[in-house]
Write a structure and sequence with these properties.
The chain has 228 residues and is an alpha+beta fold. 20% of the residues lie in helices and 30% in strands. The protein contains four helices and 16 strands. The radius of gyration is 20 Å and the shape is globular.
Amino acid sequence: MRAGILMKVSIFKIAACAAVALTASVASAGDDVLYWMVDSGATITTDSESNPQTTATISEFFANIGDYFPDISTGEGSAFAARVRVTGGNITEDTFLDLYIPGSGVDVGGGAYGVEFDTVGGYWGAGVPTGNQSPSGDYSAGTPEYSFIVELGNIDSSDKWTTVATSAAKAYSDLGDYIHQTFDINPGQIAVWTPAQFTAVPEPSGGLLTLMGVALLALRRKRLVEVA
């Protein structure tokens, strides 16, 4: 499954700067599209028991990911990527914005795998330099209002996603400058949401893991007593 997604993302990277021929299968007039990307200028702040608060560029953070997430595999078949999580409204399960692949249409469900970090035209990031295009019209209204969070993560060879850092949540109403109708044939001329600051997902500390273990053991004993 992931091979096909990676192929589509590769097509996207090659064609990102070219004009896109719109078809009826891509989107109907009036659909909102969020333009977003993560570039090399963004930083990640970490704060954990083993790594006191520090700030590093994304590339530095990825290069030393083992210091923060020892269980993450960065071997062959793994990659770092970015995706947009949607929260608020009536959402009760993991929801991510889909991705538009120029020349291929909307990759429904592909947003969960995100866009891989790579170098394109001398720029490094996810969706650089013109931005990713994600249909967002389904989340233009809601009570409470929908919000968007850019997540950075690692995908291993078995397609397992591990979130390593997140941006601050932005309400739909705050992203008006980056939301446009339909898919733009000249994306290089519009504003792109480019979060500049991320916070590393905290790793469980030894003390926290101990407390969790004690709590689970107490719960198990309570259930055994009730059964007896």
